[in-house]
Amino acid sequence: MKKIKEEKARYQKQFGARLKIVRKHFGEKQEVFAKRVNASQSTIARLESGERMPEGYIIKMVSEQFGCDIDWLVTGEGESGLN
Predict the structure, then answer these.
(1) What is the 3-state secondary structure (H, E, C) of the chain?
(2) In whole angstroms, what is the distance from residue 41 CA to residue 80 CA?
(3) CA distance 68 to 59
(4) pLDDT tens digits for the chain (83 residues)?
(5) Smallest Cα–Cα separation from 59: which of 13, 19, 8?
(6) Number of neighbouring beta carbons within 10 Å of residue 68
(7) Disulfide: which of 25, 44, 63, 82 matches 34 by Cβ 3.0-4.6 Å?
């Protein structure tokens, strides 16, 4: 069980780092970014800090709104698709 919690925490932190890369790439503050993906600023802050597991709709919205590769966003593998 401890290993699963550690894996989850590591995944959340890695996802949060990628999410922050996307947001910073477009030069957006958390509040503006959150509105574009139909989330609250506090949700984005918690995702970026690794405190929260991302929900599917947020992953989909980030990919659609910012054109990043969904596989990269979720797994970190491949190219980000950010230009």
Answers:
(1) CHHHHHHHHHHHHHHHHHHHHHHHHCCCCHHHHHHHCCCCHHHHHHHHHCCCCCCHHHHHHHHHHHCCCHHHHHHCCCCCCCC
(2) 23
(3) 10
(4) 889 999 999 999 999 999 999 999 999 999 999 999 999 999 999 999 999 999 999 999 999 999 999 999 999 999 999 97
(5) 19
(6) 23
(7) 44
